[in-house]
Amino acid sequence: MTVATSTGSSSTAGYYGQPIVAPHVWEDTIGWYFFTGGLAGASAVLASAADIAGKQRLATHARRAAMIGLVPSPLLLIADLGRPERFANMLRVVKPTSPMNIGSWLLAVFAPAAGGAWILGELGRLPTSTRMLGLVGAVTGAVVTTYTAVLVTNTATPAWHEAKGELPYVFAASAAGSAGATVTVLSAMSGRPDPIAVAVGAGGAVAEAIASTVMQRRLGDLSTYHSDAPTRRLDRLAKLLSIGGAVGLVAARQSRLRTSIAAAAVLTGSVCVRLAVLRAGTASASDPASVLRQQQRP
After folding, report:
1. Nearest to 177 by CA among 151, 148, 212
2. Which of 152, 230, 284, 293 is the most buried (most CB within 10 A)?
3. Is the pLDDT of residue 145 over 90?
4. Which residues pair with 2 in a beta bridge?
5. Helical H runs in the chain?
6. What is d(CA 243, CA 212) in angstroms, rounded to the nearest whole number?
7. pLDDT in tens, 49-69
8. Rounded to whole angstroms, what are the CA distances from 69 to 10, 222, 244, 286?
9. What is the Cα 100 distance to its own chain's centre?
């Protein structure tokens, strides 16, 4: 691998053929965690908004969607960390400069609040407490949807670090789309697909595709979404599924089957977005030329 230096000559990048920046060691498991955490957080926001607006059917399905995302999240996180006590060790201190530490505290507050709101909602008891727990879950859940983006951009990986202005929006939009899609499927299983959930799912999917495109264009020569084949395939699949799913949600016209299929496409697209981000980071850190180009940027 060669890179043009400031004098115009070319030289071999890296030390003894090794990457300048150590690539991350995360497996696809953490990409799934990014997805389920975003789903849980955005669903909690939707549930609280619906509860305040008096739309109880929507609130019930959104709380269930939050649990669908929340239940596997700690299992995926522990699987990546290797040992459960590593998560507990994060809670021994509060370190505002560490996105991982703050994220651990957010999850420690979000999970009981969202879980408590779901339990009380299913029991139909203590509506005031349900609403208050839901509000706490919504506030922390909104941050949960984007803290993982802040976490990865707070690294030296070029494709992540230089996307710090756009990646949180990509994750937030993706989370909203997956939340709306999940609530759409749940509502379709018990009757008419909820129109608000359909709108949130379609809008989030379109916003995700737009934000991702803007991010890649701003990255320019640091973008591995085009130079790395696996990343390119995941990114194209994500956009195809997200845009196709959004169009399908709008065009389904309350058909339970067509709406559910379109929602499934949005969900799959959201997963592909997170996996593409991981793969882009791997390819970027493994390319010494990308690291040097990042350092040469103003």
Report:
1. 212
2. 284
3. yes
4. 12
5. 28-53, 56-70, 72-81, 85-90, 99-123, 127-153, 158-161, 167-189, 195-219, 224-227, 229-251, 256-286, 288-296
6. 12
7. 999 999 999 999 999 999 999
8. 48, 32, 23, 32
9. 15
Give the 3-state secondary structure of residue 71.
coil
**240 class by beta-carbon count within 10 Å (0-12 exposed, 13-18 middle, 19+ buried):** middle
Q: How far is CA 292 from CA 155, 168, 228, 268, 274, in A?
A: 15, 24, 18, 34, 25
Which residues does residue 4 pair with via DSSP β-bridges, in sequence order? 10
Cα angle value 186/187/191 (rounded, 5°): 130
DSSP code string of 16-36? TTB-SSPPP---HHHHHHHHH
- Cα 218 from Cα 209, distance rounded (Å): 14
Under 8 Å between Cβ of 112 and 118: no
Looking at residue 15, its pLDDT comes to: 56
- Give residues with Cβ within 8 angstroms of 129, minimum separation 6: 116, 120
Q: Give residue 118's Cα distance to chain centre.
A: 22
Per DSSP, the three-state class of 10 is strand
Answer for the pair 264, 241: CB distance below 8 angstroms, yes or no. Answer: no
Residues in the chain: 298
pTM: 0.84
* Residue 58 half-sphere exposure toward CB, CA atoms < 13 A: 23
Residue 268's Cα: distance from chain center in Å?
Answer: 12
Q: Summarize pLDDT for 247-257 with one digit per residue, the tens.
A: 999 998 788 99
